[in-house]
Design goal:
Number of domains: 2
Strand order of the largest sheet: 1-2
Radius of gyration: 16 Å
Strand content: under 5%
Order of helices and strands: HHHHHEHE
């Protein structure tokens, strides 16, 4: 985020940090799931090999496939991305994409 502040894409970095802390805190609106590296990393590695994905995009997709269903219940899983390769991989894995 510091690079975005220096480039003036974010005007008030401290305020943004405070907002993130509030939104992801105990009573916040955003739930942060625990990262399960033993399950996610091997799957992400496989995704990098099968699709044209960068490492973090593959991790994001692996979490969407492996962990999101645990929290979504009967709701659809929708991956939100601006990366065309990640979107194509997600669709091929049966996820809706926006």
């Amino acid at each position: 985020m510091q690079a975005a502040v220096r480039a003036r894409r974010i005007l008030n970095g401290e305020r943004l940090h405070d907002r993130i802390d509030a939104d992801t805190g105990e009573h916040g609106r955003i739930f942060l799931a625990a990262f399960r590296p033993r399950a996610i990393v091997p799957y992400a590695r496989d995704l990098v090999r099968r699709y044209r994905l960068r490492t973090l995009d593959a991790i994001h997709l692996a979490v969407a496939v492996e962990d999101a269903p645990l929290y979504a219940g009967s709701d659809d899983i929708v991956l939100v991305t601006r990366d065309a390769d990640q979107a194509a991989a997600a669709r091929s894995l049966g996820l809706a994409v926006r």
